[in-house]
Amino acid sequence: MCGSAGCGKTLLGVEFLVRGATLFDEPGVFIAFEETAEELAQNVRSLGFDLEGLIEQKKLAVDYIHIERNEIEETGEYDLEGLFIRLGYAIDSIGAKRIVLDSLETLFAGLSNVAILRSELRRLFRWLKEKGVTAIITAERGSGTFTRHGLEEYVSDCVLLLDHRVDGQISTRRLRIVKYRGSSHGTNEFPFLIDEGGISVFPITSLQLQHEASTERVSIGVPALDAMLGGEGVFRGSSVLLSGTAGVGKTSLACHAADACCRRGERCLYIAFEESEAQLLRNMRSIGLNLELWVKKGLLRFHAARPTMNGLEMHLASIHKLVEEFQPSLVIVDPITNFISSGTVSEASSMMMRLVDYLKARQITTLLTNLNRNGGALEQTELDISSLIDTWLLLRDIELNGERNRGLYILKSRGMSHSNQIREFLLTDQGILLTDVYLGPDGVLTGSARLAQEAKEMATAAQRNQEIERKRGELSRRQQALEAQIAVLQLQFQTDKEEMERDITTEQVYLKKLEQSRQEMAFSRKAESNGSPGSQKKVRK
Amino acid sequence: MNRESASNGHSIQTETPKQWQLRLYVAGQTPKSVAAFANLKRICEEYLAGEFEIEVVDLIANPRLAKDDQIVAIPTLVRKLPEPIRKIIGDLSDTERTLVGLQLRSGLKMKE
Prior knowledge:
Chain A is of the alpha/beta class. Chain A has helices at 9-23, 37-45, 51-56, 81-94, 105-110, 114-131, 152-155, 223-228, 250-263, 277-285, 292-297, 312-326, 345-361, 447-524, 533-540, and strands at 2-3, 28-32, 60-64, 72-74, 98-102, 134-137, 139-140, 158-167, 170-180, 189-195, 198-201, 217-218, 234-235, 239-244, 268-272, 300-304, 330-334, 365-371, 391-400, 403-413, 423-428, 431-436, 438-440, 443-445.
């Protein structure tokens, strides 16, 4: 294992032994050339390694070998049998299966006969192999060679190169397998992380596009938005991007999604690069979201950090670690744009790609926010990750009549029918409201312009209503007039009818009288005594 | 311990305390160890007659003892007294350097 100062060689060595002793029941020996056993125990205690405890349990032995150059004089032939005896004694005392030598550099510094040293070290490697112990030998990085003396890398079976590079004031630890006999190993550089849990390594390019696609839908926390997304929200495990300029409500929308996630009883990890946890909680309270409740219940975890605190790989590594630990079903990164400040754009986008892939592979819904800078096209992210995104919501401000209002629309949403409408996005103290924007002959109206237009429409409608009322009145009046006329005519008719009937009666009376008088006349002329009409006819005939 | 007790037999003087206490670490009877002991004896008799005591420690018999004097190379001669501790590694075939290592060169000069 080679590397320059401060790149974590000793730590990796100690972890190798501690994990071996605790997880695989393989006792180990640490041969320290640079630190005493006490110093070593103290230095790794912060990582949670209890060396003293392991030494007591006979699972670990630490031997400090100290060589003081100025008290040594070399005269003639010698060998390193003393070292062999010490190693052998330490290994046999606990039945060690693993050994770490940290580092052989000290031998070269303490002894001047390099020829003897080299041959003795070769013998040492062979001897360790014969003993059947797995050995890690640390070595300083040399110029042009992996190790300063160009020896260890040839005699060992596996060479690990540790590196600690500073790029733009941000340092990243990297690890590379230079050689590993008898195995097909990854040849890339892998970033690694040293924190309170020890060393974590994350392969960066081993991810493949093989993740499953869930058909389950999850709400994004705003019912109207879910309705726009085919009525059910986004697919579980999909990636959602919220992009927009400053102050359009990206964080508020993200917090709604977090709230909805916690309401379902699922865990949500919120990675905030711009606001602290307390600040976010306070701000969200003002729009009616009580996120504190979820934090207390352990469903919501904030990870607030400055993006410049770590290199990109470190961020990725720490997110991986948090995800493994917390097992969330929603991860929010707010905003991803800040990653650019800890690396170049291409580095940041490759990192985002890996992050999105990683989360997708675990069926974790990802919500990313992207801050569009002024002047940049809205349909573009600075990280160029739009192609990675399944659902892209665009928040934009609509400037009209001296006001600024927020509009939201869905730029794309893979695999579902979604609304093509722009909705006005309102932040109220009950949360986010989406209302239809006014679409009229004058274009899209929002905010007070929309309200004014709506008022205008209401006035027009009222006018129309009045007109209708008026017309209705007129109609009824006309009807009344008509009915009156009909009554008059009927009255007239009644009068006429009565008159005519009277005339008819008079005529009939006249006719009767005439008949009567005729009969009387016939009687008087001594006609038949029965004055029937038949006799009358007979008489006539 | 065998070697140690045997080494006492090789000590030239047995009265205590001696001004010079030397300890020679070896690992078995290797040619280098044998040569170192012979060279040491010769030098001591020549320069420190009657003033020295040699203890030979065989690390194969007592591997534990290697820790105390931080022994890595074999053979190693440790000057326990007079202080400060000095270590001379190798078979002591270079008399001149051995004397320098034991800081006998300056001591002799003072005697003169």
